[in-house]
Write a structure and sequence with these properties.
By secondary structure, the protein is an alpha/beta fold. It has helices at about 1-15, 25-55, 65-70, 85-90, 125-140, 155-160, 170-185, 195-204; strands at about 60, 70-75, 105-110, 110-120, 150-155, 190. The protein is globular and about 50 Å long.
Length: about 200
């Protein structure tokens, strides 16, 4: 983690002092930095949720045998818990627009399965809007076997979306989409940290 921070600082300083040539637009470099930052924050979000789950008595596992035989547990999407295996073992489709997109966590509470995507955002913008769209898309997904989807958004932008204030047309549109898809898919959830804690408490 510290190595990543140092590399990011070095990269920013390097490009700040150097005029890029026409073959390397500065926007591309910033996009790469933003993507790496988003991935880092996403992983922090995953770890935060796993920590909350563990406090409520859920166990984290790394293989299918333990996951399938335990009532309250969580796993992260990984090589063992890839899309193919998850679809086969849980009987789900996970039909996102982006083909073969994996989510972040699989939560099991007895016979209930919840598939979770976690993001951390503080501001809006091009890359951030794309991540919000991905979270909203998760709410549209449905499964015949009652599996639920969780869109978890942490950070200042989550508070803006969940508030009653205006904040402009874009925010209002995003709120309307969230409400619409939650109404269409009542088994799904859009939560911040407090909402996630409440949901997990109810599952126990």
């Amino acid at each position: 983690m510290e190595k990543f921070k140092n590399n990011k600082k070095i990269t920013k300083r390097y490009f700040a002092k150097r005029t890029l040539n026409e073959m390397t637009p500065e926007e591309w470099v910033q996009a790469i930095l933003d993507t790496n930052s988003s991935r880092k924050k996403g992983k922090c979000g995953e770890n935060k949720l796993v920590h909350i789950l563990k406090k409520q008595g859920f166990k984290e596992f790394f293989n299918w045998d333990d996951f399938l035989k335990t009532d309250y547990c969580v796993v992260k999407f990984s090589k063992k818990f890839n899309l193919k295996n998850v679809r086969e073992n849980l009987g789900v489709k996970i039909k996102t627009k982006k083909q073969n997109k994996t989510l972040d966590l699989i939560i099991k509470a007895k016979d209930k399965i919840l598939l979770c995507e976690a993001k951390h955002l503080n501001t809006s913008g091009g890359g951030q809007d794309k991540q919000i769209s991905e979270l909203i898309e998760i709410l549209r997904l449905t499964e015949k076997n009652g599996v639920s989807y969780i869109s978890f958004l942490d950070g200042k932008y989550s508070n803006i979306l969940l508030s009653d204030n205006g904040y402009g047309d874009k925010i209002i549109t995003q709120r309307k989409e969230i409400n619409k898809f939650l109404n269409n898919s009542p088994n799904n959830y859009w939560v911040n940290t407090a909402g996630f804690e409440s949901l997990i408490f109810d599952l126990k």
